[in-house]
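User: Second chain of the day. Same drill as before.
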Amino acid sequence: MNENSKEPVVEQALDNIESNVSDEKMVNESPSTSKKKISPDLNTNQNNSDVIDYLSNSIFDDTKEVLIDELLKNESESVEVIDDSRYISTFSEISEKKIISGRVIGMNEKEILVDIGFKSEGIISRNEFNENALPDIGEKINVYLEKMEDESGKTVLSKEKAVFLQRWQELRDIFETQEIISGKIIKRIKGGMVVDLDGVQAFLPGSQIDVRPVKDFDKYIETEMQLKVVKFNEFRKNIVVSHKAILEESLAEQRSELFNKLKVGNIMEGRVKNITDFGVFIDLGGIDGLLHITDLSWGRVNHPSEIVSIDDNLSVKIIDFDSEKKRVSLGLKQLTPFPWENVKDRYPKGQKIKGRIVSMTNYGAFVELEPGIEGLIHVSEMSWTRHIKNPSEVFSLGDEVEAIVLSIDTEEKKISLGSKQLEDDPWDKIEEKYKIGETKKGKVINLTQFGAFVELDEGVDGLIHISDMSWTQIVKHPKEFLDKGQELNVQILEVSRENRRISLGIKQLEDDPWPDLIKEFEIGREIDGKIVKILDKGIILELDHSIEGIVPYGKRPKRDRKALSSNYKIGDVLNGTVFNVRPDDKKIVLHVKGLAPDDGSKNDDIREFLDNQDAPASEKIQIPDDLV
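Assistant: Same format as last time:
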């Protein structure tokens, strides 16, 4: 090393010595120190050359010259690693909203003091501890740091929140690993139960308590239950648990085993799990089977609850099953014999039976003879004499009735019954009771367009046709002559036992006036009549004895007919000559001068009038073809 290179080193060394000397003066020597420390006083009058000599002889004795190439080599000297764990342990990472460890250092009536290694002790409300389980002085506990400093400068801690967060983290792991845990049901709320999971409350839905519907929820309060976390909401701090999920997992294995053992036709024991409108669900010990309403009974079933109840134990038959869809069809009626076997032997034709009305339609009433066997009483077989429109006129649903077996069709599974056959048919001796020509008293029970029905006896009706109501008047509707409920005398005109028909008449109670009327209205006689109708092709007159007279216009153009019609009005009196008398049609044809041509073609005039098709139906005049 040359002299020039030593000068900066010396200057640096002097600076270091000055610093060391000043430090040395501040340190008290130990009494046991045997060697005397060298403490040069840089303030003395020693010159710099003495210092340089001192440094040259002591400091640079072991100095080694290092070249730049050696510094650039990738070699490094190993430095002994000093154990710094004790040094690092003196630092603690403390921040809010975290769980930290602390040591109890004191307590008073309201608070517990905890040393957490911060500049001030933390406080926990004493209410967070059970008075019988307070921590001991010096005991280490985990706490939740809520605030580094509150308004009064205190560090606020919480033991409850620390326990909650610790348990919350555990439950998060349990949810992820799908472990089974134990919880205590503490109360019931809407829709389910509240479960305590060692400091954290979870919701147990009512549908997740058991695989079967729960009727009494209160019996589960204060009970321990194995649970599985099925929903974990970190944001809302919400946990949903299920006991049913655990049961279903165990039942899944049982289902697989049971499906391997299932065979169509097997009879199994099951419990009624649920009842619906269409059937019953049966628990077969891990598998749910459907007992359809049509397979409950051979008879008519309106609702499954009529036969079974919840929790009933039943023996059922396997009808069909699908291993892939895990569906099983069950039958209950299949355990009993098919009721239609030998049905003809049990219900021969003509036998009187008893049954119950189970259904009614517009055409009849269905009678249950036994479960699975029903017969129909048609409306036509309910009464010999009455016209039954609906079975409700005779029967009511649920009535116990008697009937006679009329016929059986085993292929169609139909039985025809009759209730009227329980009594004698009054029509068998109707001809003896009602003789033609006799006068009977009756009551009008119905009016129709073509006539009136008159009740002669209970269940025996007769018909008065409109043509048999008057000798002289044309009756268009029976209400012109009769009223419903009116009592009157009638004459028996015809009796037919085969057709079950009696024809009646009221005009026959009087003598036929037409023999005398023919003399009164002799052909060629001039008579007067009052106009009652004016038609396009003729005029209708009312003559004596309420007989109608017809006056045809003849073969005139339509324009001329309208002109003629305009000259007359209803109520006017016309004089005409009798041209023809028709007793069967209750009409007299007249010829009125000026209305028909005077060319001697009166027959053509009448034909033209009778061929009138333009008049309304109620105004058309019906004349036999022979008159034309």
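The two ends are 169 Å apart (CA to CA).

User: Great, on to the next one.
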